[in-house]
Amino acid sequence: MSSAPHQHRHDDEHHRDQEPGSPLTDTQLRVRALESLLVDKGLVDPAALDVLIDTYETKIGPRNGAQVVARAWVDPEYKKRLLTDAGSAIAELGFAGRQGEDIIALENTSKVHNLVVCTLCSCYPWPVLGLPPVWYKSAPYRSRAVIDPRGVLREFGLELSDDVEVRVFDSTAELRYLVIPERPAGTEGMSESQLAELVTRDSMIGVAIVKGPQQ
Amino acid sequence: MNGVHDMGGMHGMGPVVPEPNEPVFHHDWERRAFALTIMAGFKRWNIDRSRYMRERMPPAAYLAASYYERWLWGTERLLLERGYVSAKELESGKAADRPSEADVLRAGEVGKMLRNRYAARMKDELAEARFKVGDRVRTKNFHPVGHTRLPRYARDKRGVVYCDHGVFIFPDTHAARGEKVPQHCYSVRFEGGELWGPNAGPRDAVYIDLFEDYLEPL
Predict the structure, then answer these.
(1) Domain residue extents for chain B
(2) What is the C-alpha separation between B111 and A86, in angstroms, rounded?
(3) Which of A60, A152, A177, B149 is placed for a possible disulfide with A116 were both Cys, Cβ 3.0 to 4.6 Å?
(4) Which pLDDT score is estimated for A20?
(5) In degrees, to the nearest 5, what angle opens at C-alpha A142 toward C-alphas A139 and A143?
(6) Shortest CB distance from B196 goes to which of A41, A145, A147?
(7) Cβ contact A44–B104 (<8 Å)
């Protein structure tokens, strides 16, 4: 059945599995065996795998969350809805579903800085941020975010003063958290789509602030 | 279980190293392992069961593995444990037989499955709330060998109920038996000093989503 290697248009020189002519690693062989077996057994549809991969590589990612944040910055009524029922407010923009069935929005202010982690695994709000980056799932972040959040933020280049309250949210259940970063100064004249361009993934996890166009 | 997956508060793991312009996947096998894990589990086991399996990866292997290597390991073990495949089949990649009936999600149904907004939440009337916002609580001191979502760093600690999220499937029994026990889940605020003593930063707090069974009134 489907034992031929898969070719994907996203592959490029840098991310190819191995150099031409070099043997496949044990992991690559196991993944290939698993796929050919499950397809052979009729337990998975290979075309469904392709749709799933394409969805998270090209459709669902942090640009979704950036649109939510930008809308909250320009529309106070929307922001109110976002902070009281984030799931519905986010669904207004067309984003909802797996690993974000119940989302809570956390507003960062000059007095309170929210930061999100999952110390037990890798819980992350997929519909608005896509799949998590490697550092978010890594032992250094998962171990330190709760005990030394200010030290972690410093590694991301963010130094918070002692009078700012740091709130770390450990995603230990099925609630998923989206940080609404502070709108930077000097953005008063910008449109919603221009604002969305400024919003970074890291700022919506809470490890960064959003910088204005001049910063 | 007191596994190495329960990392909150551990030392010695090194600095956080973000990768600029990180791609969603770093290798083609990661794409396939990600999608295979989700599709293999479709209607066959629940997410708490998947998490519990990955937690049982031997600690040295867990720490040495990359993220999708852990997913691959967990998916192989779940398929074996549930009898969907044999070790020989996994090795060869060839089926010795085919199941007569299989729930398979087709490509055209993936979008609908991903947009589903109802997963772990259950109806509010299925469970009464023992705690309310503002209640002072203490987390239990327990060390189950099974799955739990009360991290070790937050056991036997005092906190305050910050909000009641409503009723969700209790993960501990969901992982063990697939049973959907309805239970209130709360966001509980813990002051940094309560968790870490003098090592806590100034004005730091940790909010943890905790099920009612993890909490006692204070």
Answers:
(1) 28-115, 124-217
(2) 21
(3) A177
(4) 60
(5) 80
(6) A147
(7) yes
| C-alpha dihedral (B126, B132, B136, B137), degrees to nearest 10 | 10
DSSP per-residue codes, B119-183: SSB--GGGS--S--TT-EEEE-----SS---S-GGGTT-EEEEEEEEEEEE-HHHHHHH----EE
Q: Measured between beta carbons, which residues in chain A are less than 8 angstroms from residue B171?
A: 173
* CB atoms near residue A163 (< 10 Å): 9
- Residue B127 touches partner A, C-beta closer than 8 Å: no
Domains B28-115 and B124-217 share a fold: no
CB A66 within 8 A of CB A44: no
Average pLDDT over residues B33-54: 96
Given a cut of 90, is residue B98 above it in pLDDT? no
Q: Give dist(CA A60, CA B77) in Å, integer.
A: 29
Average pLDDT score over chain B: 96
CATH fold for domain B28-115: Cyclin A; domain 1 (1.10.472)
| pLDDT, tens digit (0-9, with 9 covering 90-100), for A173-186 | 999 999 999 999 99
Of the candidates B7, B31, B207, which has its C-beta nearest A143's C-beta?
A: B7
The hierarchical CATH code for the domain B124-217 is 2.30.30.50
pLDDT, mean of residues B49-73: 97
pLDDT in tens, A194-212: 999 999 999 999 999 999 9
The CB density around residue B21, as the number of other CB atoms within 10 Å, is 4
Provide the 10 A C-beta neighbour count for residue A72.
25
**For residue B148, is pLDDT > 90?**
yes
Cα–Cα dist B39/A112, whole Å: 40
State the complex-level ipTM.
0.97
SS3 B185: strand
Residue type at A93?
L
**Chain B touched by A142 (CB under 8 Å):** yes
Nearest to A139, CA basis, from B57, B16, B31, B35: B16
DSSP of chain A: ---SPP--TT--TTT-SS-TTPPPPHHHHHHHHHHHHHHHTTSS-HHHHHHHHHIIIIISSHHHHHHHHHHHHH-HHHHHHHHH-HHHHHHHTT---TT-SEEEEEE--SSEEEEEE-SSS----HHHH-SPPHHHHSHHHHHHTTT-HHHHHHHTT----TTSEEEEEE--SSEEEEEEPPPPTT-TT--HHHHHHH--HHHHHTSS-PPPTT-
pTM of model > 0.90 = yes
Average pLDDT of span B147-167 = 98
